[in-house]
Structure formats: structure tokens, C-alpha cells
Specification:
single chain, mainly alpha, two-stranded antiparallel ribbon, 2 helices
């Protein structure tokens, strides 16, 4: 839809809107993951199996 000769609005089905919203959330999660990975670069880490064992011990 245009307003004043310029593209101004978009009409989508609710399903299309939800799909776009999910894509945006996934994209933001990916950005957060990449930032966290970059921050942890060079930091000591603990293998997941060790963490699980510690959590099970209580």
C-alpha cells in the first residue's frame, strides 16, 4: 500500500507475520550466540559431560 506515492504499508496473513517474527527471533538468538562465543574466546571451559555429572551429584 502506498501513501503519498511511497510504499508505506504491508498486508500479511497472520501466519506470514508469525513466520517472519520467528525468523527475527532466530536471527537475534544467533547474534547473541555469536557475541557470547566471542566473549568466551580464550577462556577456560568445562566439558558438558563434567557439568552434567556435577549437577547430578547435587
Amino acid at each position: 500500500m502506498k501513501k503519498g506515492g511511497k510504499k508505506e504499508f504491508v498486508v500479511l496473513s497472520y501466519e506470514e507475520y508469525q513466520a517472519i517474527e520467528e525468523l527475527m527471533e532466530d536471527y537475534m538468538d544467533l547474534i547473541d550466540l555469536r557475541e557470547a562465543k566471542a566473549e568466551g574466546q580464550g577462556q577456560p571451559s568445562v566439558p558438558l559431560d563434567d557439568v552434567i555429572k556435577e549437577l547430578k551429584k547435587g
